[in-house]
Amino acid sequence: MTESRIEGLDLPPLSPVLEQELAALGAEGADRLLNVIRGLFHCIGDLNQRVAELEKRIAP
Questions:
Q1: Which helix (H) or strand (E) holds 42?
Q2: CA nearest neighbour of 36 among 51, 25, 50
């Protein structure tokens, strides 16, 4: 099932509609989608780090 594809994450089961969409993508398409999502989370992490650095400079 999809839960095994997302290793290491404690997520609730996916909705049947999302399961169908991922199945329609196939393994390669689902991998590409997950890579995009990972990239977005990486960008968000970088932005959070930059905001924290700016807050340190601004705060006394």
A1: helix 16-58
A2: 25
pTM for this structure?
0.59
CA distance 21 to 8: 22
Backbone angles phi, psi at 4, to 5 degrees: -70, -20
Place of tokens 């968000």: 44
d(CA 27, CA 43): 24
Top pLDDT among 11 and 6 is at 11
Give exposure, 5-34, as e/b (b: 16+ Cβ within 10 Å).
Answer: eeeeeeeeebeeeeeeebeeeeeeebeeee
